[in-house]
Design a protein that fits this description.
It is a single chain. By secondary structure, the protein is mainly alpha-helical. It contains 4 helices and 2 strands, in the order ααααββ. Strands 1-2 form a two-stranded antiparallel sheet. The protein is globular, with a radius of gyration of 14 Å. The protein starts with 14 loop residues before the first helix and ends with a strand.
């Protein structure tokens, strides 16, 4: 379940309310919807999955979801604004990340 989406307990039908909730969660701010998975936990779960994939032969691809991927990227490469990265991520979108570099980073940003 490492690459499952960052968990939110309830459906939020209003787009503005949903975006506000995602911003709070990704920024680890107070006021996240009750029962939401903290971004830190989602990022750790994702990182564990990346460790498993990194032990296999390359090249490899990970197919996942935007919020959990953004939570991981925020910690792995230090995104300036995790919410904006998530909000601008195309659907579907892809990026190439170098796991072998001394510091994980984008080879190709989202497109």
């Amino acid at each position: 379940d490492g690459f499952d989406e960052l968990r939110m307990p309830d459906w939020i039908g209003n787009a503005d309310e949903f975006n506000d909730a995602v911003r709070v969660i990704l920024e680890d701010g107070p006021g996240a919807p009750r029962g939401s998975e903290p971004a830190e936990h989602a990022a750790a779960r994702f990182a564990h999955g990346v460790e498993i994939v990194a032990q296999a032969a390359f090249p490899a691809a990970i197919v996942s979801h935007g919020r959990v991927l953004t939570a991981w990227l925020a910690r792995a490469i230090g995104l300036d604004d995790p919410y904006e990265t998530w909000h601008r991520m195309p659907m579907p979108g892809w990026a190439c990340v170098d796991l072998d570099a001394p510091r994980i980073g984008f080879i190709t940003p989202f497109s």
